[in-house]
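Weekly modeling sync, notes
Attendees: AB, CL, MP (scribe)

Item 1: holo prediction request
CL wants a bound-state model with heme C before deciding which constructs to order. AB pointed out that an apo prediction alone won't tell us much about the pocket. Agreed to run with the ligand included and paste results into these notes for async review.

Input as submitted:
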Amino acid sequence: MRKMIICLGAAMLLAAFLAPGLAMAAEKQAPAPNLPLQKEFRIVRSMSKQAVACIQCHKAENPGIFNDWAHSRHANANITCLDCHGAQENDPDVAKNHYKVYEKGNNQWATAEYRVPISGVVTPKDCSRCHPDEAKQYSVSKHANTLEIIWKIDPWLNYGLNSDFERLNGCFTCHGTVLKLDKDGNLDPMTWPNVGVGRLNLDGSRGSCSSCHTRHLFSVAEARKPDTCGQCHLGPDHPQWEIWNESKHGSIMRSQGDSWNWTAAPGTWTAGVDYRSPTCAACHMSGSGSVLTTHDVTERISWEMQAPLTVRPENFKPWPAKTTWQAERKKMEAVCKQCHSEVWVKAHFTQMDGAVKEYNEIYFLPAKKKLEELYAKGLLPRDALFKSPLWVEYYELWHHEGRRARMGAAMMAPDYAWWHGFYECKLRFAAFMEGANHLIKTGEKGYVAPYWPAGTGNTTKPWQIFGKKK
Ligand code: HEC
Ligand code: HEC
Ligand code: HEC
Ligand code: HEC
Ligand code: HEC
Ligand code: HEC
Ligand code: HEC
Ligand code: HEC
């Protein structure tokens, strides 16, 4: 597709919008004395008058938006505002208020002549017109489907343990909202704005491409940098950004990354040529040697290390991978081998697998068994969850330090694997076991808080994903 779009006088076009003198010439539809007629002809032919109106009016309204777009590869290839925001009159997400801007008459573009339906929401479906492969890969990823996954397994949501505002400003900013219209047919502020990685759109598509490619630059260079992933992949329960940062790979990039070639054309970014140590994208997404670029981040993964019990991705019940872990491990190894020898790489994965096995067998499974014993003996109700300080010890063992230990080992971060990881697992494990054994010995019931703040969240699973209840 990319190759089919011929950029007719794209450079002229850009010059016309960037230089005030030239832009004025285009506005008046009359050539300035020093502007050759031929150039004028090319501009007019290359985009519709409605598309010119978007650019001209918004250049005045929002210079920030215009400027980003003008510096994007899209502007360079003559992809206009209308190509992404264009809508049909009866689309559910059409911006009803926008029709009014064509009635104001406050500038030459504010007239009915330029009126077209537009939508403020631009979904993976919209991008898929020109980027079908990326959209397809993304659509099967855990990113695009995260709302389905978390509603299947998460206690905060299923037991209503946090409020709608806590979810909106926290969980859903990373995971995505279910977009809704309010009673006037405008986007509901309890769901918008949002660019969470698994946003559910009104056209039925899942996700938001601008979680990594921010509008309106849509740059691959940005997506290749770790900060992009780090906006979500950080913090006590999934500190991949901190882990990468402390690894040798991260420290090399911080000391030398300024001189690397971040803007290599899509698919041509080459280990050892354009960069000498990998970022998140380099290991998880970008093409490398014989391994092709992917927009499905579950590729190249051989364990589900975020889960309580580490399992293979094909055995992860809420969203089972369609391939085998061996096939994906081979891909990741091939990425490493662009810069490392076979012996080095295999040994790394032996070390990582060892850490995973020990976490499962020495920490998680015995703790889980003890918790089941408390339930069976009636010492703790199954729905106590966060209201029980003892249950919180169990939760943080797998959800916080247990993840840090495993992920620190996977991505070469010794401080996370040990001090923030296994060391803390030991303390947590000891505290949980002591508390549980005390209850078992004395027959006392575990403490359960009588009151829980802001436990007001809706517990109904979104019907758009799970179907309407009969
Ligand atoms: C005459 C000026 C004018 C023209 C022409 C114009 N816009 Fe707008 N647009 C505005 C103003 C003012 C706003 C902010 C007010 C609003 O949201 O209604 C806006 C808002 C928007 C929004 C945000 C809407 C939302 O609901 O979040 C988008 C997207 C947008 N315009 C895209 C376009 C596109 C695409 C075109 C060309 C088809 C276009 N505009 C043409 C003036 C204009
Ligand atoms: C490559 C596709 C693409 C092009 C081209 C494009 N946009 Fe957007 N625009 C988006 C996306 C994606 C968003 C974020 C909305 C979302 O997450 O669905 C957005 C958001 C917006 C918003 C609302 C954001 C805000 O901060 O208020 C406005 C207004 C807007 N675009 C105007 C424009 C204008 C004007 C142009 C042309 C100069 C343009 N867009 C070109 C994809 C595009
Ligand atoms: C009408 C077609 C069209 C639509 C719609 C479109 N794109 Fe593009 N996009 C292109 C073309 C053509 C290029 C290649 C430009 C070039 O190579 O100079 C491109 C390039 C890109 C790039 C690579 C930029 C770089 O730095 O090399 C990204 C990322 C991208 N698009 C993301 C998106 C996203 C996200 C959306 C939806 C919000 C979108 N595009 C919608 C046509 C489109
Ligand atoms: C800062 C962004 C962010 C916030 C805020 C956030 N999450 Fe997450 N969440 C993530 C990331 C990133 C992962 C992936 C961790 C991994 O795979 O290592 C994740 C993983 C999960 C998982 C595990 C999914 C699986 O595949 O096993 C669940 C469940 C979850 N989050 C629910 C929530 C809920 C509910 C909230 C709010 C109470 C929340 N998250 C808040 C970013 C966030
Ligand atoms: C999780 C982050 C992330 C999300 C979400 C994302 N991308 Fe990308 N995208 C990347 C990275 C990283 C690259 C750079 C690959 C490389 O190094 O060549 C990229 C590259 C691209 C390119 C350049 C061509 C290519 O495939 O390398 C296009 C086009 C593109 N993305 C479109 C999209 C579209 C469309 C969506 C939504 C369906 C999307 N992206 C969502 C991270 C993301
Ligand atoms: C807007 C937030 C957000 C951004 C940005 C983001 N992610 Fe994620 N990522 C998530 C969430 C949420 C999950 C958990 C999905 C689930 O399991 O439900 C996740 C999961 C993952 C997984 C785990 C897949 C698996 O099968 O367990 C990988 C790997 C990943 N992301 C890599 C990346 C990379 C690389 C980038 C940057 C190029 C990135 N992510 C950017 C939110 C984000
Ligand atoms: C040197 C390559 C490399 C770099 C750089 C890297 N990762 Fe990883 N990542 C891995 C490996 C290897 C694994 C374990 C894969 C497996 O399960 O076999 C992993 C696992 C993950 C997981 C999966 C955890 C889970 O749910 O099981 C996430 C999420 C993730 N990485 C995100 C990131 C993010 C975000 C960054 C950047 C801040 C990053 N990675 C940087 C190699 C890398
Ligand atoms: C773009 C090149 C590149 C890629 C790809 C890459 N690495 Fe590295 N890696 C390096 C460099 C450079 C060093 C620093 C070597 C040194 O210590 O002298 C390094 C260091 C390491 C170290 C040593 C860490 C320490 O603290 O001593 C390990 C282990 C490692 N890499 C494993 C991997 C694995 C596993 C992969 C694939 C998942 C991978 N690397 C991918 C370039 C790369």
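Recorded for review: The longest helix spans residues 342-376.
Action items: CL to compare against the apo run; MP to circulate these notes.
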